[in-house]
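The protein record quoted in full:
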Amino acid sequence: MKLLSALISENHTFRKALRSIDLQTSVVLIACALLMMITFKFGSRSFFVTQIAPEASALQAWGWWFSVQGVTGFLIPILILLIGFRCKPTSIGLGLGDWKLALLVFALYVPVVITGTWILSDARAFQLEYPHYRGAIDSWSLFWVYHGLFLLYWLGWEYLWRGFILFGTQHTFGIHTIFVQAVPFALLHVDKPTSELALSLLGGILLGALVWRCRSFWIAVPIHAVQMLVLDFWCTLRLRAGVSGNGLESLNAALSAI
């Protein structure tokens, strides 16, 4: 009898806990994990080359990855929130929000990122990592095509964290959702150079806070895209010119490789 009573009590507690779970928050968190699994499994360049297009070029493989991330990180999450939960576009970060503040922050950020990435690009670890598509080093045409395709990736990558998670769970976690989205974002940088890994957590928190304040995810796309573009640009120039150091002479020598 004691065992039966305990089981009945536990069942009651379980059912009560189950009823207290917020459906949207649960779906968003689980969907995020599943979408990342799909991206890593079926969106990888190796999957594209081995399973879809064995004769594809390296640039096409990168384009596949960027496109899959755009679908799994941007398109599908938006459909889940708009159609599945009938959210308004402005409530899930798709409106313009405080665009004046966003533009001001972006204008202040660009000089900082230009200077910071120039310094970082002097490290051999960054030159070995960036640009990811090595064909961009030898051809400016391929460089710009690559970064044009990269925008698909940034839409998916940024909305998944700074849109889907941030706004999709805000009613449950409140402002703490800024930290919820920053943790997995930082962990996914674990294979990056140490300095980038350390900055990813701080950057994820700050970018999440900016999007939260502006009530729009759109500002996250140019901030991250410009950061990658400039870093790739500096690394490409250094690799082309064989330049090291951060002084004006090094800068002039690197710019001569344009």
